[in-house]
What does this fold into?
Amino acid sequence: MTDTAPLVRFVGVGKTFDGRAWAVRALDLDIRRGEFLTLLGPSGSGKSTTLAMLAGFETPSVGDILLDGVPITRTPPHRRDFGVVFQNYALFPHLDVAANVAYPLDVRGVARDAQRRQVDAALAMVQLDGLGARRVQQLSGGQQQRVALARALVFSPRMVLMDEPLGALDKQLREHMQIELKALHRQLGVTFVYVTHDQSEALTMSDRVAVFDAGRVQQVDRVDRLYEAPASRFVAGFVGDSTQIPGTVAARETTDPPGTLRLAVGGAAPTLRGVDAEALPVGSAAVGCIRPERIEVLTAAPADATDTLAARVVDRVYFGDHLRLRCALVGLPDAPVATVKRPLDHAAVANAGASVWLRFPPAHLRLHA
Amino acid sequence: MIRPVVSSLLLIACAATAHAAPELVIVNFGGANGAAQRKAFYEPFERTSGAKVVAVEYNGEQARVKAMVEARKVTWDVVEVESPDLSRGCDEGLYERVDWSKLGGKAAYLPAAVHDCGVGAFMWSTVMAYDTSRFPGGGPKTWADFWDVKRFPGKRGLRKGARYALEFALLADGVKPADVYKVLATRDGADRAFRRLTELAPHLQWWEAGAQPVQWLVANDVAITSAYNGRIDAARREGRPLAVVWAGSLYDFDYWAVPKGSPNRDLALRYIATAGVPDHQAAFARLMPYGPTVPQAVARIDAETLKHLPSTPANMTDALKFDARFWADQGEVLEKRFAAWAAR
Amino acid sequence: MTPPAVDAPTLARAVRRERRRRTAGGLLLVAPLLVFLGLTLLLPIGTLLARAVHDPQVATALPATAQALDAWDRVAPLPDAARVALQRDLLAATDDARIGGVARRLNGDVPGARSLVMGTWRALHHDPAAAGFDPTAPRAAALEAFDARWADPAVWIAIARNAAAFNPDDLLAAVDLRRDAQGGIARVPADESAFGRILARTLGVSAAVTALCLLLGYPLAWWISTLPPQRAALAMIAVLLPFWTSVLVRAAAWVVLLQREGLVNQALIAAGVIAEPLALIFNRTGVVISMTHVLLPFMVLPLLAAMRAVPPTLMRAAVSLGSPPLQAFVRVWMPQTRAGVAAGVLLVFILALGYYVTPALLGGADDQMLSYYVARYANVEIDWGMACALAVVLLAATLVLYTLYRRVARDTVLGA
It folds into this structure.
């Protein structure tokens, strides 16, 4: 069935600019028809280069890119039929809004009145009705980004590529645009490939996210999977907040669900149980990663000390929608700090300096190399 | 605004040295001529007077003199001036009248070297010149030959402007040297001259600076050209096979003149007297083939040098004196007509 | 919090005071610049304009004659009073500079007036009796007896016309017009009218040089803009090389290259392209080539600045929207450099208008620019009135063109 066949496949794609360092290495990635895929990663991780190769601005040094099974590795960008939205909008300053949006239609030889109809529809779609005669310099940043979006969508491209398109907007506008983009995607059903370094943006909009680091894809997954079951310590740290506790794999549990390991965290502290995320051998060094909101805070020493570590509250920060405690794990070498998120009305909110006990539920503590 | 600062510093420096030795600013046209003047005139003057000569180069721009005189800030003491500029400058009060009693009287100089406002410095000539190797069967001898592009093929060089070009055109048209200015003063005469120029126009290459015609001859860019005789001589001394035609040459004098209001008037006159000493004039002629303005100097010049001076009688037989008075009256109209002619 | 109770007029006054204070502060800051501009730009231009129409020499040197000629209609026989007045004026003028100026002024209208006036003045002051003059009681007939040219009414008309301190003669002459005897404006005869054609030629040469600079400079600037910084700096040095040599050295270098047996002709003949050497210098070709060379940097620099400011994503955007690279370059990239093109064109054209040394050395007699004649009248002829009048014509032509250019530029840059 064609619908399950990916729209785009990266097969062993690598890119080097200087012949020595790889900006992207050995990339195998499928882009599904109609999905909203985000390429997420810190700067220099290879996500923008990947997008540039997809758009045709850069040519892979090795490997192939297939569109519907046909190689487009050497197809020039103007024959790819992809709409591209840039971070700085890249609107044509010598043309007015309507002429900007009409540009891709014009170069495709669409008749004038058809152009006008489609431009009006595209502008209406991004809620810029009636602003066609404006000069682009007269628009706000958000409006300019909408024009860029309309221009990238108006010619019904096979795919829309966006390179950090909201990076230049302020926070509120950015969040608003995120919702709109998502709605547009749902409405049009076009495949969106979106590049960002902002993990919250990625989580808000995407169907799937590909996390890049050092030229490699670390994980491609649904956003909830990415959050709940990161494949590596990098992903765990980069996507969402994560409290990390170093230690050694002490044993493989036999009683608990399969894949549970016991993590010795050193000193006299008790061991913690956690999920084996990377098939770790017993005796290897490991880091236990857990989302801060999964940590339970006890103000009194529990009777059953399983999976629990003693800690002292270092400080307490009011975040409006939650409280955040930073707790030094006493009794561990170097006393690592664990971040804990609690609801505002949580009973066991302690003040700085207070002694607490932190319980790490084994289902949510994931052990990475 | 660097310049005022620099110039005021210079003024201070000058003021400081002025007490040590009096200073005389002499303005010349530079080049080989300026160098010859330094050797033949400035150096002997510095030795006898104890003054220091500061040589300044200019290009004949009378506007500089006019600006100084009008502003009553005269920093030039002696200026080498061409004859039309001297007449005009004298009329318009740019130059001091000469006190001939301090120069030993007018009789010591050639009559043409005597002017109300100036003392003849040397005599020079605009001549026809060509490369002898280009015409092995004998070169052009008259201005009619200059116009004859069939017998003497090749481009022609003339000085840009009406002056000289119109005189030569009339000479080529058969007008006797003595009648040239009489004819040129009439409407018909001027028409005749311009018609002649029109005839030759496709072959003409107009020069602006004195160095150009010589360079063109050497580079084979023109076959025959008008040129200052001193420039041709310099190239000849370097071994170029250049020949000069004295018949139909236009000679003139350059003068020493003192801008009105010069603070060093007396010293300037003493310099001019030094430049009129026959020995110094003979020395100058040896360096630069321009004729002396005091008759006594001729006896002190060797025969070989005399051969190349415009003042030597043999070279003057068919020569024409450039008429500054004529050009003072007719210059504006004829130059404008020349510009119109060139733009036609 | 409610604001303190202040009535509206008080508030408005406070706002106005504040605004005045700021304006005053701003004025204080730009005051030195304004003074500087006034002294270095407005004053000289004002003087220039004034000199072109204001010449009080005749009026101040010959006051009685001016008065006597005032009533004369220039058709009737000349009143004897004028002849007498002129002798009195000349006798009264002991300053030769004054009369020299008058003589030069009149000579512009009537060739020969210079020697006539100066000769008469000298005779009156040195030995009047021998020349037939009576300094104590001047006789009307004495003038014509001394020099028959005084019988020519043209001389007197010239005096009458120039007796007005303000007169448009120089300005008229600068556009090939003149006043006839009755004061009507007429064209000068064809064989004397030069400046119209010279102005047209000046504009033509400047336009040609500007077009050539744009044609050569645009690809060059584009190429430099694509180079990495170090190599771009090297290329810029090569472009700026013409600035490092004097005008004369450059002119000499072009002579060596372009003359009849110069390098270019030799190479072309050796390559068999031409049989006879081309005339590349001492004509319009040489002028345009050498001026283009000198002015090219003034085109490249603004172009380069404009090109470097074009965001590289614009090309990518255009290509991604379906334009082949060349189309994207022409339709999207090139319009972004319009401001640079406009600045370069304006700069080169206006600089070219003022060039005269290069055309003087590398052009023929019919390749001289208007500024050559400005310099000539100022330096050689010392006719500052005429020099100023020509400069005013050049200035006016430049301003007219600039206004047109602004209109066109606004339409193309903003109009799209």
Remarks:
- The first strand of chain A starts at residue 8 and ends at 16.
- The mean pLDDT of chain A is 89.
